[in-house]
TrEMBL record:
It comes from Pantoea alhagi. GO terms for molecular function: riboflavin synthase activity. This is Riboflavin synthase. Residues 1-97, 98-195 form the Lumazine-binding domain. It catalyses: 2 6,7-dimethyl-8-(1-D-ribityl)lumazine + H(+) = 5-amino-6-(D-ribitylamino)uracil + riboflavin. InterPro entries: ATP_synth_asu-like_sf, Lumazine-bd, Lumazine-bd_dom, Riboflavin_synthase-like_b-brl. One of its GO terms (biological process) is riboflavin biosynthetic process. Lumazine-binding repeats lie at residues 1-97, 98-195. PROSITE patterns: LUMAZINE_BIND (PS51177). Its EC number is 2.5.1.9.
Length: 215
């Protein structure tokens, strides 16, 4: 599990390409190296990856076909940076919201509005059916960052970013048309799905009752 509080950014210094598979070699920040072991989970742009090799501050992670398909990590090139968070411990402060590191879709940056002390960014999810889980003032994970949803329309949503977030994460350098990873808040998803199921059962029961009366 992760908290959505990005601990730093890391440069992808090399990429080893194979068929439907690639390995990212990342220069990990020194502060995140202590205690890092093979098999540990580290979120890259919010996507949970497993440490496969450690060589000083060069740490390797394998990405399978599904990860490359679902996330924006397949767009990464050597020299690019990713948001990094190590797996949370039970004693850690949950400053954001609990996240699994399982990306559900990507979203394209469709609009950027700059103001004096914040930036408003609009995102258009690739899978529009997920918008029912994105609610005004709700939680959402964007490239591993726990953020609060601003406005929501039928096709897109926005967030408001303070200077600290822009400085500490990769969102400060994002441009129009670029893709970000999206993780829906699982609690919101569970509530929406439960309400939909209950309403569907109620409507089905009502339809059956009306049909019986008609007969």
């Amino acid at each position: 599990m992760f908290t959505g509080i990005v601990q730093g950014t890391a440069e992808v210094v090399a990429i080893e390409e194979k068929t439907n598979f690639r390995t990212h070699i990342v220069k990990m920040p020194q502060a995140l190296l202590p205690g890092l072991e093979l098999g540990a989970s580290v979120a890259h742009n919010g996507c949970c990856l497993t440490v496969t090799e450690i060589n000083g501050d060069r740490v390797s992670f394998d990405l399978v076909k599904e990860t490359l398909r679902i996330t924006n990590l397949g767009d990464i090139q050597p020299g690019d940076t990713v948001n990094i968070e190590r797996a949370a411990k039970f004693s850690d402060e949950i400053g954001g919201h609990l996240m699994s590191g399982h990306i559900m879709t990507t979203a394209e940056i469709s609009k950027i509005i700059n103001a004096e002390n914040n930036r408003e960014i609009w995102f258009k999810p690739q899978d529009s059916t997920l918008l029912k889980y994105i609610l005004h003032k709700g939680f959402i994970g964007i490239d591993g960052i726990s953020l609060t949803v601003g406005d929501v329309t039928k096709t897109k949503f926005c967030v408001h970013l303070i200077p600290e977030t822009l400085m500490r994460t990769t969102l400060g350098a994002k441009r129009l048309g670029q893709r970000v990873n999206i993780e829906i808040d699982p609690h919101t998803q569970a509530i929406v799905d439960t309400v939909e199921r209950v309403l569907a059962q109620r409507d089905a029961a009502l339809a059956t009752t009306l049909q019986n009366h008609a007969e």
